[in-house]
Design goal:
The chain has two domains: about 140 residues, Oxidized Rhodanese, domain 1; about 120 residues, Oxidized Rhodanese, domain 1 (3-Layer(aba) Sandwich), CATH 3.40.250. About 30% of the residues lie in helices and about 15% in strands. The protein has a five-stranded parallel sheet with strand order 1-6-5-2-4. It has a five-stranded parallel sheet with strand order 8-12-11-9-10. The N and C termini lie far apart (about 45 Å).
Length: about 290
Amino acid sequence: MYTTLISAEQVIQLQNAKAPLMVFDCSFDLTRSEAGGEMFVQTHIEGAVFADLDRTLSAKGDRQHTGAQSGGRHPLPARETLVQWLRDKGFMQGMQAVVYDRQGASFCGRLWWMLKWVGHDAVAVLDGGLNAWTAAGGATESGTAQMTSGAQGGNFVMGEPGVTLVQAEQVLDKLGRATQTIVDARATPRFKGEVEPLDPVAGHIPGALNRPFQLNLDSDGKFKSAAQLRAEFVALLGTRGTETVVHHCGSGVTAISNILAMHVAGLGSTALFAGSWSEWCSDPTRPMAQG
């Protein structure tokens, strides 16, 4: 069972062994929401299922955000909504899930986290994404997704959450306390409030540490070694305990790269503030900082 990262070669081995497996393509573009689907149709891993950030992995398509489990630009849908979608795609209990994108693991982490949120631990991010897959000689195809198993639908059953979700009220309540360390995954200019291309207010949550998620990857687009990631996060946190860490970004998506990286580094499971800056800055009574 793979629970953090998986190499292209390991996925190919699972395919050759006819292991229960489903691959999800989570490619997306924050500036043009239809681009992910277009990229998928053009080329994707053979047999992969497309998981759209706006329409599947968030409640954004529901203007009333019925059942949404967070605020922000990409509110989490109800857990039951994700489970039903998985069943519709033929996802089976105990199946190995592999998630990938072609944007440096910017978006596929969302489904990695959400599967653990509905109690499924056997999910891993394809290290290096589609580039690593094609470099390894993995099969690709074009066109729309086909159901890869379970002609009558999948039998996936929701379990207890394997990850921690934090709400804005909880972050506010612990603001400035030693029991909470906020880590912001956005690029440093956004963190400082010098630019803000997506949200109405620029800046960051007071006291937050900045760890741009892109720092988790090497020049080849794969995650750095466990030892290197561990050293970098230990240096970032200083004397702060890893159990105090709450990750966020703009809308709770790219922050998951930092959660995954800390897992890979052997630093354990850390919490996600899914509403992130987009939810935080929507209430002018919440404190905000710049610089």
